Amino acid sequence: MFPRPIAKARPAVRVAYKASLPVALLVWLLPLVAVALTSIRGAGDLARGNYWGWPGEFDLVQNYRAVFVTSPIGLFILNSFRITVPVVAASVALACMAGYALAVYRFRANSWLFFLFVGGNFVPFQILMVPVRDLTLRLGLYDTTLGLILFHSAFQTGFCTLFMRNFISSLPHELIEAARVEGVGEWSIFLRVVMPLMRPAIAALSVLIFTFVWNDYFWALVLIQGNHAMPVTAGLNALNGEWVSAWNLVSAGAIVAAMPPVAMFFLMQKHFIAGLTLGATKG
Amino acid sequence: MTTTTADIATTDWRAQPRRRLSRRVAPALFLAPALLMFLVYVIAPIFASMRISLYDWDGVGKMTFVGLGNYRELLGDDAFYTSLKNNVLWLVLYMLAVPAGLAVALYLNQSVRGIRLVKSLFFFPFVISQVVVGVVFGWFYDPQFGILHSIGKLLGVATPAVLADERYVTYGIIAAGLWPQTAYCMILYLTGLNNVSPDQVEAARIDGAKGLRMLRHVVLPQLGPATFIAVVVTVIGALRSFDLVSTMTHGGPYGSSRVLAFYMYEEALSEYGYRMGYGAAIAVVLFAIMMVYISIFVVRMIRQDRGKR
Amino acid sequence: MKNFRAGLMASAFILAGAVSALAGTLVINTDTSDPAPKKAMQALIDGFKAKNPGVDVKWNVFDHEGYKSAIRNFLTADPPDIVSWYAGNRMAPFVKAGLFADVSDVWKAQGFDKTLGSALSAMTIDGKQWGVPQSYYQWGIYYRSDIFKKLGIATPKTWDELLAACATLKKNGITPFSLGSKALWPTAGWFDYLDLRVNGYAFHMDLTNGKIPWTDPRVKAVFAKWDDMVKNGYIMADHPAFDWQEAVPQMVQGKTAMYVMGNFAVAVMEQGGLKADQIDFMPFPTITPGLPPAEEAPIDSFHIPAKAKDMADAKKFLAYLGSGEAQTKINDILGQLPISTDAKVGDDKFLKAGLAVLSKAQGVAQFFDRDAPADMAKIGMEGFQEFLVHPDHLDAILARLEAARKRIYKVN
Predict the structure, then answer these.
(1) For residue C270, what are the contacts with CB-CB under 8 A and spacing of at least 6?
(2) Cβ contacts of C42 within 8 Å, gap of 6 or more
(3) Domain-located, residue B23
(4) What backbone phi and psi angles, to 5 degrees, belong to A185?
(5) Over 70: is that where the pLDDT of C69 sits?
(6) Cβ within 8 Å, pair C3-A94
(7) What's the pLDDT score for residue B192?
(8) pLDDT (tens digit per residue) in C285-323
(9) Domain count along chain B
(10) Mutation site, C73, C245, C252, C253, interface A, largest A CB count within 10 A
(11) Angle made by CA atoms B305, B307, B309, in degrees to the nearest 5
C-alpha cells in the first residue's frame, strides 16, 4: 500500500486525487472552519439558531473589537509573550551549552546525565506540581510571570538538551579537534566554531519551544492566579466560563489565542518540521 | 592524527595560562547551569512529591505523617479507579492516532501542486493549544448548538449530549484529543516516508508485492524510527491528558471523565480539595505508570547510543 | 548563568516593590470580578476613604472562581489586610489554621451583636467572631408567573400542590424545572431545601456537620421526595451539559417554567428578555408540616488575615462595612439584602419577598458547600448530580458519601 507516484497514474485517478484533496482538507478542518465562521457572526444569527448556515450578518470587526475591549485578552496575549520569549531564550541557551558538553566531551557521568535529561523530559507534570508550587511560593514568585518562566526554562531544558546533543554529535568532530590544535580555548571553540553551525538547530528548537510554552495551560493554572500575569490559554478558559453561550465571542477569542503559534508555524515551517521530526528518521 | 592531537592537547594544557578553560573543567561548567535548573525544578520535586505522599497536608497547616495511609485510601477510592480505567481507555484509544497518522501521511505523500500547503494545513490542529481544541470540541458536542446535534437533526437521528453522558463522555474527549495527535503522527510519518528507499519499493513491486503486503514487509520496516517516536509521543500525550478534560468537562458528569492527571489536580489544588498528600500519592501512581514507558524509551536509546559509538 | 542571575535580580526587585507598596496602605483582596459586585466594592471603598481620609487603599480584584484557590496562597505567602470570603463552615479551615484574625472587639465596640444579630451565629466559631457580614440573599423557586396564570395554576404552598402544578405544566408540554448542573452546586440548592423541608434545620446542620450517617433512613426520605421530580421527568434533561445560566434561555422561551436558584438569577433572567412581571418568587413549599421555618440564605463577608500588616485600619474598615450606611449603599448596587438592622432594603419586589420570608425564618442555612467542609461538599454534590441522572444508583451513592463522611469528619 505504498502509493505509486500519482504522476504515473491514469489521468482519471490523478484528477480524482486532486479533487479529493480540498474535500479532505475541509472535513479535517471542519471544527476550525466553523469556529472561524462563528467568530464573524452577529448575535442575531445565534439567537435565530443560524449556527451553521451562511452568516446573516458579518460582525467581524465588531466581535473582535468586543473581545479586545470587554475582556483582558490583549493583556493575556502580552503576558504569553512575556513568558514565552524569555523561556525560549533561556532554555535554548542552557541547552546549547549542556548539549555541547554531552556531545563533545567524554567523561564518566556523560551517559547518565544525558539519560537524566531525556527521562526527566517525559515525567508527568503532576508529580512536580506540589513541590514546584511550594518552591515558587517560597521564592516569592508565585503569581508572577518570572515564576512561570523559571519553571518552563528548567523543564524545557531537558528536551532541548536531548535535541542539541544529538545535533552537535552529528557535526564533524574534526572541526573541534582542528581548533584545539590551533590552540583555541574551549569557550572560544564553543562560541566561534560550533555555535555558527548550530543556527538551524537553534531556529528549529526555538519555534518548537515557543509553541510548547505558548500552549501550556497546566502550569499557568498552578502558578498564576491574577489577570496581571495570566497567559492566554488559561485566560481563554476563564473567559469561556464568563461568556456563557456567547459563542461568537468565544470563537473570536479562540482564534485570537491560536494566532501567534499558527503564524510562527507558517513563518518558520521548515524549521518547525525539522525540529519535530528529528529522531523520527534517525531515531 | 589522533596521537598528535593528544600530544598537542597535553602540551597545550600545560602551556595554557590559568584563565583558559581546561578540558577537564569545561564540561562541568558548560553543564552546570542547565543541570542546576533541571535538578531544582524537575528531579528534586519528584522525590519531594514521593515524600509528601506519605503525609496528610492541606497546604496551609501542619504536615502529619501517615505512612502509606494515602495509598491505602486510594485502594478503596472509586474515583481513583474511574480515573485509572479512563487512563487505560486513553492509552488504548489514543494509539489510533498512529495508524491514522500513517494513513493520512500515505494519502498526502504525493507531489502535486500545492501539496505543501495542504500538508501544512493538515498539520494545523497540532499547533493550536489544547485549550482551544477543547473549546472547539465542547461546542462541537453542545446539545443545543453543536455541529453534531445539527448533523443528527439533518439525518433524523437523536444525538446524545456527549459531554453530559457518562457512557460517551470519555470517548468524546479522546476523539477531540485524536485530532491534534493524528496530525502529529502524520508529520512524523511524512518525514519518515521521505527516507523510504524508492528502489526497494520498486524492486518489491516488480516482485509482485502489493497493497497491505507491500506496506507490512517493505514500507513499515523502513518506518521503524518514525513509528517508535510516534508511539512514544502518543503514550506521553495520553498520560498527560489534563488540558482537554479540564476545559471540556472538569471531570464531569459526576466525575465519570476523570483521568489521573486531572484527579490529582482536583484533590490537591481545586476549589473543593486541598489534600496535597493525597494528590501527591495519585501523582506517584501516575509517575510509576509513566516510568514503564520512560524506561523502555531510555533503554532503547542506550542501546542505539552504544551501537553508534 | 547570566539568565539565572538576571532572574534573581528581577525577583529581588519585585519583592522590594511589593514591600514598599504595603507601607501605610490598606490592601484589600476580593473576588468581585463581575460588574455589579465590582461597582459595589468601589462604592464601599470610596465611602470608607471619605470617612478615613488618611488611609490609602490598594484593591486587588481576582477572578471569582480562581479566588477560591488563590486565597490559600496569599493568606500564607503574602497576606493582605482585608479579604472577602464566606461565613459558616467555609471559613472554618482558615480560622482553625490561625489565618483569620479574631475581630470580636470590633463587634463589641460597634454593637454589631444587635445590628448584625441575624448573622452572629454564622460568623462565630469557638465563641469569637472572625469577620463581618456584608449581605445575604434568599434562595427559593423563581417561576414564570405569566405561564402559571395562563394555565390557571395557583402558587404551590405544599409539596403535593407543587407536584400537581408540575403535572399540569408537563401536560401542556412544558418541563417544569430548568437546571444546569455542570458546575455541580446548583443541585445543592435542591438538596438543601428538600432536607430543610423534610427534616428541618437542626437535622440539616447535623448532617452537614457529619453527625448523621448518609445512610440514615431520614436522608433516604429526602431523596425519595427528590425522586418525585426525577421519575416524572419534571427536571430538564441533559442538565449536566449546561452551566446554570445556559438553562435560563429554556425558561425565557417558555420550555420550562421554574428554577430553584438564588436571587442573583433574576438579573440573568431579565437580561435574557423576561419582564419583571413575567417572573416571580415563591418560597420552597412545605413538606413535613409543623417544622420551624428555615431558609437558605448564604452570607458574604469580609475578614482580616491574622498576619495583616495594617491591623488598625483593617478594623476600621470592618467597622464601616457593618454600618447601616455602608450596608444600604452596597446592597442597593448588588441587589442583595443588607444584614444590618440600620440599613434600608432596596425597593425591589424580589428583595422584599426575600426579606419577608427570611424575617420569619428560625434557621438560616448557608448553602451546602459552605455548611459542609469543602471535600464533603464536592463528593456530595457529585452524588446529587449522579442521582438526578441515575436515581437507581442511590444506594451506591449514599454508601460512597458515608465512606467520605467517616474519613472527612474522622468518625468511626
Answers:
(1) C276, C279
(2) none
(3) no
(4) -70, 160
(5) yes
(6) yes
(7) 85
(8) 999 999 999 999 999 899 999 989 899 999 999 999 999
(9) 1
(10) C73
(11) 70
Cβ–Cβ below 8 Å for B272 and C1? no
Question: Which backbone phi and psi does C261 adopt, to 5 degrees?
Answer: -155, 175
CA dihedral B242, B247, B252, B257 (to 10 degrees): -40
Q: In this structure, are residues B216 and B102 in contact, taking their beta carbons and an 8 Å threshold?
A: no
Beta-strand pair C279-282/C139-144: antiparallel
Per-residue pLDDT tens over the stretch C212-239: 999 999 999 999 999 999 999 999 988 9
The range of the structural domain enclosing residue B272 comes to 76-308
Asked if C11 lies within 8 A of A238 by C-beta distance, the reply is: no
Q: What is the model's pLDDT at position B9?
A: 41
Residue B251 to residue C337: CA distance in whole angstroms: 35
Find the mean pLDDT for residues B47-67: 89
Which residues contact residue B60 at a Cβ distance below 8 angstroms, ignoring those fewer than 6 apart? B274, C72, C75, C76, C93, C94, C97, C99
CB contact under 8 A, B27 and A117: no
Residues 102-161 of B with CB under 8 A from A: 106-107, 109-112, 114-115, 118, 120-125, 127-132, 134-140, 145, 147, 150
Min Cα–Cα distance to chain C from A66, Å: 16
Q: Which of A75, A150, A224, A243 to mutate to test the interface with C (most CBs of C within 10 A)?
A: A150
Contact across the interface for A215 and B52, Cβ inside 8 Å: no
Percent of chain B with pLDDT over 70: 91
Closest Cα to residue C70, out of C28, C22, C31, C17? Answer: C31
Closest Cβ–Cβ partner in B21, B38, B302 for A115: B302
Cell of A156: 524545557
CB-CB neighbors (< 8 A) of B118 in chain A: 21, 25
Q: What angle do CA C266, C272, C273 make, to 5 degrees?
A: 100
Question: B112-131: string of b/e by CB count within 10 Å (b at 16+)?
Answer: eeeeeebbbbbbbbbbbbbb
The residue type of B272 is Y
Q: What number of other Cβ atoms are within 10 A of residue A52's Cβ?
A: 14
Residue C148's pLDDT is 96
The domains of chain C, with CATH numbers, are 2-135+298-355 (3.40.190.10), 139-296+373-408 (3.40.190.10)
Chains interfacing with A (3 or more CB pairs < 8 Å): B, C
The H-or-E segment that residue C253 falls in is none
- Amino acid, res. A126: Q
Rounded CA-CA distance A115/A22 in Å is: 44
Q: pTM score, two decimals?
A: 0.86
Over residues B253-272, the mean pLDDT reads: 90
Q: How far is C66 from chain A (nearest CA, A)?
A: 6
The helix (H) or strand (E) run that includes residue C164 is: helix C159-171
> Which chains does C contact via 3+ CB–CB distances below 8 A?
A, B
| CB contact A186 to C (< 8 Å) | no
Residue B95 maps to a domain: yes
Cβ–Cβ of B219/A2 closer than 8 Å? yes
Q: Which domains does chain A have, with CATH numbers?
A: 6-59 (no CATH), 71-276 (1.10.3720.10)
Using a CB-CB cut-off of 8 Å, the residues of chain B touching C242 are 164
List the Cα angle B215/B216/B217 in 5-degree steps. 100
pLDDT at B1: 35
From the number of C-beta atoms within 10 Å of its C-beta (0-12, 13-18, 19+), residue C151 rates as: middle
Q: In this structure, what is the dihedral angle of CA atoms A32, A38, A40, A42, given to the nearest 10 degrees?
A: 180
Place of cell 589522533: B2
d(CA A192, CA A186): 10
**Cβ of A241 and C243 within 8 Å?**
yes
CATH number of the domain where residue B303 is located: 1.10.3720.10
